Amino acid sequence: MAWPEILFLVCVGIGLIYACINLLFGDTTSHLPHFELPLLQPLSLMSGLTSFGGCGYLLYRWTALALPSVFLGAAAAGIAITVISYFIWVKPMKDAEVSTGYSLQQLTGKIGEVLTAIPETGLGEVVIPMITGTTNHIAASMDKVSIPAGTRVVVVEVKDHVLYVVPFQ
User: What kind and span of H or E run contains 25?
Assistant: First the structure.
C-alpha cells in the first residue's frame, strides 16, 4: 500500500472514530477548546476530513489522475462537505439550543403573585410566570410585613432557595 492510500485511510479512520465517540458518548468535544469561526466547528471539520480521506482514496485507487490532481479533488470535496455539513447540521442545531431551565438567581426582578399569604416572619408561596409556563416558589417578605394572597410582588433577593419579595406598586 502506498503512502497516499495510508494517508487517506487514516483520515477516514479518524473521522469514523470521532463519529463513533460522538454517537456513543454524545457531544464529548463541547468542553474542548475550539475555534469560534463558523465553519471551524469540530463536527464540520471531521466531516470534511473524512470526506477528504474517502474521496482521496477513491480517486487515487480507481482513477488514473496524477497525485496532485487527486489531492486537489479530495481537498475540494473535503471543503465542500465541511461547508455543507455546517449549513445542514451545525448551524441549525446551534440555533436550536434553547433551554427551559433557569437559575433561582434569574428570578430577581421578576414580578409574580402571592399564592399563599406571606406572614410577617414566616413563609408563603408565590407564582411567577415564565416563558414555558408558571413556577411556584417559597417566599418571604423582605420588609417583614404581611402580604395577602393575590398581591402582585417583585422578587428582590434570593437566599437559601427562598424568594424575598416586596409588594409591587
Answer: helix 3-25
**d(C-alpha 118, C-alpha 114), whole Å:** 8
Residue 75, number of CB atoms within 10 A of its CB: 14
CA end-to-end span of the chain, whole Å? 80
Whole-structure pTM value = 0.53
109 with 154: CB under 8 angstroms? yes
Nearest to 107 by CA among 138, 80, 84, 78: 138
The CA dihedral of 92, 93, 94, 97, to the nearest 10 degrees, is 120
CA 6 and chain centroid, separation: 36
- Interval 3-40: pLDDT, tens: 999 999 999 999 889 888 877 876 555 555 555 666 67
What distance in Å separates the CA atoms of residue 32 and residue 145, rounded to the nearest whole number? 50
